[in-house]
Amino acid sequence: MEAYPNAKVLLTVRDPEKWYDSAIETIWSWRCTEQHWAARVFENGRKFQAQAQAFHKATMLPGVKRSDREGSIKSFNAWIERVKSTVPPEKLLIYDVKEGWEPLCKFLNKPIPDEEFPYINDKEQMKNELNKILLICYIAQFLRLVAVLGGVWLLVWLLRMLV
């Protein structure tokens, strides 16, 4: 709030148990961890990992690992309380997307759209997107291996031709 004193803050909330279940199956899954080699193949994967690590460090209580359900849920709730205690109430909207457009538009002084509130980014959709990214990473690694082996084969073939 110091950097942007006039900013409005939107704090999205949801059931902590469901949040943890979703996170552990999607963004915290083995496919997205810093230990997974495929996530390091592309620059975007490395950026995602750096962002995920920074988010984890900023929002989780010290020493809490992703696999610690109870600690993660305590961290989730502590983060909400931290935001509430930091942001003046008149600049804060505590918002559950299930509430739809009305509270969001009212908070932002915008008209309520005629269209239905979009619901995207569900757990299954996120898992499918992560699987697509992982497949691309595997294909890229395979193509790198093929290129290296092809280069070695070509070098050996050329050397045999010269001898």
Automatic annotation (TrEMBL):
Keywords: Membrane, Transmembrane, Transmembrane helix. Pfam families: Sulfotransfer_4 (PF17784). It comes from the Eukaryota. SUPFAM superfamilies: P-loop containing nucleoside triphosphate hydrolases. InterPro entries: P-loop_NTPase, Sulfotransfer_4. The keyword Membrane applies. The chain crosses the membrane at residues 133-159. This is Sulfotransferase. It comes from Cladocopium goreaui. The lineage of its organism: Eukaryota, Sar, Alveolata, Dinophyceae, Suessiales.
